[in-house]
Design a protein that fits this description.
- By secondary structure, the chain is mainly α.
- It is 44% helix and 5% strand.
- It has 10 helices and 4 strands.
- Helix 3 links the parallel strand 1 and strand 2.
- It starts with 11 loop residues before the first helix and ends in a 19-residue tail after the last helix.
- The structure holds glutathione.
- The site of glutathione has 11 residues, from helix 4 and helix 5.
């Protein structure tokens, strides 16, 4: 992607606005998963999940945390990775969300690593079949979904380039369509709810969001993956009713999502790593700004 230097950092006034006000301007939406009544928020052993609370997006990491019963052990740190003030490069060289910081300063990144770690914390409910064909099938469906998600991210980013490269859409769209057909075939035969299903929710919700905003040809206008995929549609309709999904899907973000909040948590992680951090550490600008 060619570097572009135009700065699109939010104004101070924008950063000070409550999340609900920014949500109405199309920003800062999503929601911290609710804490259970009476659940303790003691500092020890708490994890921090750096993630983007996007309205209409089903976060695989949140679904997994909820399904395996560790959601109450997590503090949520909203990150808008393309905006200045939200860089997490100091704790993750890739500056990507999701990133999970443990109490001792260990930072896990790569959503597959994050979700497998969360799953490993709990014996309550394991989303990873232990062994054999069921395990490999769940991992295959996770890879299918995650690559579909990342291909859609590629299209969304390319759309912001002027002029955008038509070849990117011609190359990635057929992959996404074939992946959707595979998801349809999988939905006809899979049972239960495993890590592959959590990934599928993640990919389909993000596709809905980006198609809803419009993507260039060959993506058809008003494309709906549900059409001609009755098994996948039926599976989706049922899966979005799971408490792990209902807890955050299509909810407004409630809480602090300012750059200052994000940086205070980055600083806490650095301190947990034994690094010295200036009290008023200047937030790092992000590497590149999308149009
Ligand atoms: N392979 C990564 C992909 C995650 C990803 O694409 N995150 C995007 C969400 S927009 C991101 O943080 N992008 C910021 C950047 O690339 O600078 C994973 O599975 O965690």
């Amino acid at each position: 992607m060619p570097a572009r230097v135009a700065r699109t950092a939010p104004s101070r006034a924008q950063a000070r606005k409550p999340a609900s006000a920014r949500a109405s301007a199309g920003r800062g939406v999503g929601r911290v998963a609710p804490r259970k009544k009476g659940a303790k928020k003691s500092g020890k052993n708490r994890m921090k999940l750096f993630y983007t609370p996007i309205h209409g997006f089903i976060h695989k990491a949140l679904v997994v945390a909820h399904e395996v019963g560790v959601i109450d052990k997590i503090d949520f740190v909203p990150i808008y990775p393309m905006r200045d003030g939200y860089s997490i490069a100091a704790i993750n060289p890739l500056h990507k969300v999701p990133s999970l910081a443990l109490a001792d300063g260990t930072v896990l990144y790569g959503s597959q690593v994050v979700v497998e770690y969360l799953d490993s914390l709990s014996k309550k409910k394991k989303l990873y079949p232990r062994s054999g064909p069921a395990r490999w099938d769940a991992l295959r469906r996770l890879a299918l979904a995650d690559t579909t998600f990342e291909s859609t991210v590629t299209l969304a980013l390319e759309k912001t380039e002027q002029p955008y490269r038509k070849s990117v859409f011609a190359w990635y769209w057929p992959k996404i369509e074939r992946a959707l057909d595979q998801m349809e075939a999988d939905a006809a035969v899979t049972k239960g709810f495993d890590i592959g299903h959590a990934g599928t929710l993640h990919a389909l919700s993000y596709l809905d969001r980006q198609v809803g905003k419009g993507l260039p040809a060959p993506v058809p206008k008003n494309y709906d993956w549900r059409e001609g995929r009755p098994h996948l549609k039926a599976w989706w309709d049922k899966a979005v009713k799971r408490p792990s999904v209902v807890a955050h899907f299509n909810k407004d973000y409630i809480g602090d999502d300012t750059p200052a909040f994000a940086q205070s948590h980055v600083a806490e992680v650095l301190r947990a790593q034994g690094k010295r951090v200036a009290l008023k550490r200047a937030p790092q600008p992000v590497d590149h700004h999308m149009g």
